[in-house]
Amino acid sequence: MTGSHSLTFKPAAAVRAVIILVVIALFGGVASTNARAQSDSFLGFVETYYRNGEPEEALDWMERIAPTMMDEVWQAADPQGQRFALVAAFFAHILHNQPSQIPLLTERLIANDEPNLSALGALSIASSGAVGVESALNRLRQTGTVPAETVQALAATPSYPFPTMQVTGPTDLELMWLSFYATGNPLYVRRVAEAMGHAEQGDAGVALAAFAYASLAERVTHHPAVVDTLRSIAAQRRDLVGHSAAELVSLAEGG
Predict the structure, then answer these.
(1) CB proximity list for 229: less than 8 A, separation 6 or greater
(2) N or C terminus: fewer CB in 10 A for the chain?
């Protein structure tokens, strides 16, 4: 920290979008050239989806990455299932905005009959809060694609909770960025920026604020929508969050 109105903090390699973590979990440190190429392509797809992404291509990616999401490497890196849920959230946003894709995805899950793909697809459908969720889950249950007890649990999944969620920890930051990538909605950038205000809430808050600042600094030069949102925040607020937003805008502008 420098002074009381800014969060000067250099972007840290540890503060990455969840897809970077997914890549590590999926392919480890000894990934093949082909695996690395695929992971880089997936990362590029996710980070730019909100600009011109096609939902059909997103579902193609789901099919490609899902089979390895429950292997030993993944489970060791994600014992709590957090990253699995975060990846599902990315696809849930897409299904929420394109509900016509839900029956198509349902039939793809049935045709593939791959357990990991079924788990990821079913969670994405259940979390989307879109029209057709109930019938899709029933179809997956009736065909035996997803066990009945799993469908019952998924039916209790909060219906598209993302717009009302706040950042209370690093995992939430990852969720906000994936939500922004999937939708282009500046609300999620604002949620990240607001987390910089945690710096006034003790040591844990300082750490979370620093992570939020670093994640914004890492993206502010690559995403004009992030700069625009921060510029708006800087104009509206005169507190720690506003001053830090202004500092990040200056960084983007080469100041």
Answers:
(1) 186, 189, 190, 193
(2) C
What tokens does 126 get? 């259940």
Nearest CA among 119, 98, 96 for reference residue 109? 119
Q: Any long-range contacts for 82-85 (C-beta under 8 Å, 24+ apart)? A: 82/171, 83/18, 83/21, 83/22, 83/25, 84/119, 84/120, 84/123, 85/123
Walking along the chain (255 residues) 10 residues at a time, the average pLDDT comes out as 36 35 40 52 85 92 80 59 86 97 97 92 96 96 96 91 94 94 97 94 90 95 95 96 96 83
Length of the chain: 255
CA distance 80 to 71: 14
Count Cβ neighbours within 10 Å for each residue of 201-225 and write b for 16 or more, e otherwise.
Answer: eeeeebebbbbbbbbbbbbbeebee
